[in-house]
Amino acid sequence: MKGCLNCFRKKEEEVERKIRTNDLEYNKQFGYASNYISTSKYNVFTFLPINLFEQLQRVANAYFVILLILQVIPAISSLTPVTTAVPLVIVLSITALKDLVDDVRRHQSDNLVNNRKSQVLRNGVLTEENWMNVQVGDIIRMESDAFVAADLLLLSTSEPHGLCYIETAELDGETNLKCRQALVETAELGDDIHSLGQFNGHITCEPPNNKLDKFEGTLEWNGEKFSLCNDQILLRGCVLRNTQWCYGVVVFAGQDTKLMMNSGQSRFKRTHIDQLMNVIVLWIFGFLVCMALICAIACGVWESYVGQYFRAYLPWEVFTNNPAEIAALVFLSYIIILNTVVPISLYVSVEIIRMGHSLFINWDSKMYYAAKHTPAKARTTTLNEELGQIEYVFSDKTGTLTQNIMAFNKCSINGKLYGDVYDKDGNPMDITEFTKKVDFSGNVYSDKSFTFYDQTLLDDINKGDENVTNFFRLLALCHTVMPEEKNGLLEYQAQSPDEGALVSAAKNFGTVFLARTPNTITIKDQDKEVTYELLHILDFNNVRKRMSVIVRTTDGKLLLLCKGADSIIYEHLSQNCSDLQAVTTEHLNKFACDGLRTLCLASKELDPNYYEEWKSRHHEASTSLEDRDEKLDVVYEEIEQDMMLLGATAIEDKLQDGVPDTIANLADANMKIWVLTGDKQETAINIGYSCNMLTDEMEDVFIVGAHSKEEVRVELANAFKKIKDMVGCREVMIKDPRATSMVDMGDKEFALVINGHSLVYALEKEMEIEFLNVASLSKAVICCRVTPLQKALVVELVKKHKQAVTLAIGDGANDVSMIKAAHIGVGISGQEGMQAVLASDFSFAQFRYLERLLLVHGRWSYYRMCKFLKYFFYKNFAFTLCHFWYSFFVGFSAQTVYDQWFITFYNIMYTSLPVLAMALFDQDVNEDNCVKYPKLYVPGQYNLFFNKKIFLISLLHGVLTSLALFFIPYGAVCEAMRSDGKDFESHQVFGLTIGTALVITVSLQIGLDTAYWTGINHFFIWGSIAWYFGASLIVYSDGLYKLAQFPFVGVARNVLSQPTLWFTVLLTVLVCLLPVVAIRFLMRDLRPTLSDRIRLAQQLSKTSKRTTSQLLRRKSSRLSHRPSSRRSGYAFAHQEGFGRLITSGTIKMRQKKIGQRLSEHNLKERASAEDLQYDV
User: Fold this and answer.
1) Per the annotation, does 400 bind a ligand?
2) Fewer CB in a 10 Å sphere around the end CB: N or C, the chain?
3) Domains in the chain, ordered, with CATH?
4) Top enzyme class of this protein (predicted)?
């Protein structure tokens, strides 16, 4: 507990952290957090009060608690508090139990983590301590496969020169091993406990923060000062791999660790139906107040003119002698009685339905990716119906639309293109499965899976072509790949699939990367092993978009080798490369048109004197504590000038299976697809055509690629003018971008492609509306060369100005901000780790599953939730308003028409299960037709299944039903006689008659609303009616009366034996339901919707199948005696800073059905907007 209090103790904001190793007393004065962590919310003493407080913060729960308090006051309540207390307690208990289970799991997880064992060096002796007892400044020993207990500064390891390997899956989802390196000076401490115990280094570093890839600090020891960076830091949550042991000093502990500071909750998302329900509940509350006010005013009038003369029989309360005071009390009484228009069970039912819909997604075998054993997963249970209302889909390209499995496909070397295949006459040939592959069997390091078809490239290598040799030598030297031997094979651990593909290509063509240390790189160049001295790695970042290495050859030459995006490399080339640059550009354009990912290679021989001068400036920048990255970028830029172009590579990233069909179907469902990618324009456009986003039938594809603000404005204005002239848009759209969603584009389609440098200006406040107007009127939008921040800004822009639901889908860490910004975030578990999945609301393994998620699960969830809400409000208005009509016959005395136990059980026991069955299993059309006819999805985008108008219709339906339920039994029971001649008229008989008619009516109404019957629906509907009669006979029996004092004793047995009751109930039910049946029959006959037509075709198709089956069976019976027969930019996905790590110390080499055709009803795929017959 002490650790917990210390963990949450409020302290002043840190500016910098000072730590003295092996000096706990010195470090305690700063009040640093201990290593105790707590993710739980409650303990034994705080659970009940805090949980109740949290639940009462929900307006609905607080409202029902207030009602319960009012019901306890006898003067204003004619209902027992049990009618509200029982459902309220059930709801609060279920929620509390769920919270308790979740928190117990958190406690168990916390205890498991806090009580992990760690070897801590205390007073010169290694002692075993629980993690929670570890303090800042302690030195910890870890062994292979152990979790890192806190954020540590690495001191020494079992590997040469302080190297260790870690797995960061818990931090970023990536399972590839990463390297960390201790300082050379501390690495000499080794495993010497005495030396480590005497270590008294003074660490000054940045305060706790959530930046996983950055650390700045200094270490002062033995009179020297050393610069510290992220390369020397092991973060809590990492796992030590392939390293026998290591030592580290605790820098950040517990809640201050970067892992804990990144574990904040995601943004809370609410569905549009939730927001609409809040508005409707406020309307209902206003309606409730109006009814109670009418009854209160009428009560005051009645008491003034009538009631005061009957005080001998109906005495007033002893504490009042004023009709106005009585009216005020009656107002509160009717608030209590009529509160069931918004029953608390509504919220419980909604949560159960959402949970069921989430489980259906998790259990869907058609969204299970067998190749990786990855099922679809609903990571939240609150957004299912929102999946049925998506209008904008924002998608990443690489790894989301494409496979992100890279293959070296083509290249351009010194102006010569390799990779195409030609016939004997010199004509280009298409590559098929029968095309002859290049034989790499002469290379013992070649991969069997590597394929290449242009034999001329291998021939030029064998001839000793210097340009080709230099090209592949650069690929083998300029990278941050780590070699590893597995099962006798040389494999590479790469930070990105692109880099791995390039180094593997060099290996297959004979330039094999064998091993590296922090100071050397060893390659095998055409059977000759050569070691290069690695002097510097000029690392990649998102601004530079390139990486370089500086190496010294065996003959003493200094070489700068660089690879990166063509647009960046071209800016740093020598003037002598202009001709080669022009030819290479043609090849790059061709590669981009083929949908390949490209990058350029360049090199430069350095002057030794210049290098020495530059080296000193580099050292000064690398040891700076302020703006270190910016200073390094300036130094890198200085040396990366006047390079000579070697050529370009082209890597293929194929589309995932089913992507074109999925995008086409989503577009037919009126969804606008926006692709936000970091790739270059040509490649993005080509992928757009490949996946059917862009088509030749489009009127125009607008390309915005200007580099200035005014030019971007002009290009957007010209695009909008052309669209306006062709489709007749009004100028008002420029001021109201929401109007663009309702423009009838006819058969005219447009697309917009915008570059990242143009998007910078388009997203500015004064131009964002112009950009959004053009984008909204385009069927497809492609934003290329965009940053992760720009992806999120585009999503936020649409959310800000459009009344539409957005979905973002991606697979990498650069998609996380976009996924969190959208209403729905979908993560794909691909090649770039699990970051996107961890931040998402839904996840699966392939983009094609998005079609089923939206068109089937999303549409069904929205359809079912809307039907549930319409019915739920209807049945509760029909139930509650009978009290209101009854008030006119009882002097507005707040007398209830039903027995109080019937009021309690109505929503909990009598009518809850049938509506849940409908909301969980109902479907208007089957799953095949949901996909085959994507226009079925459109109503959800315009909220047509449930909106304020639909609610008012449900309210009116409930009002009319309540009138029939009340006045027909009233006319039948009033002055009625039993069959034995005794009086049949009484309040109890009247209330039971209405209740019986009500339960049967609403149960049969749910039967009319159910489009898809299952055994569960039958059981719940007919079972609920049977349960009502059984429960009534039991509750109102003599024996139970003696136990619980039920007031309607014997009335069920008395009334249910009378034919009058059954005739009255039958008449009431017919009056309530026959108009509904008639109206629905006329609507489906005169104005059928698309779903009505498809459902009819499904039914006829089933009938046709049964008839055919019967004919076949009859035929087979007669013949039974017969014998039976039967162009993109390079994806720099690897982490910034990895290059510094490699050069910081010595590394030893590691080897280490579509549905049936409905031709008889002429249901064609066109399914135009007119077919829907909706008032959009």
Assistant:
1) no
2) N
3) 134-263 (2.70.150.10), 352-358+856-1083 (no CATH), 367-400+655-855 (3.40.50.1000), 406-652 (3.40.1110.10)
4) translocase
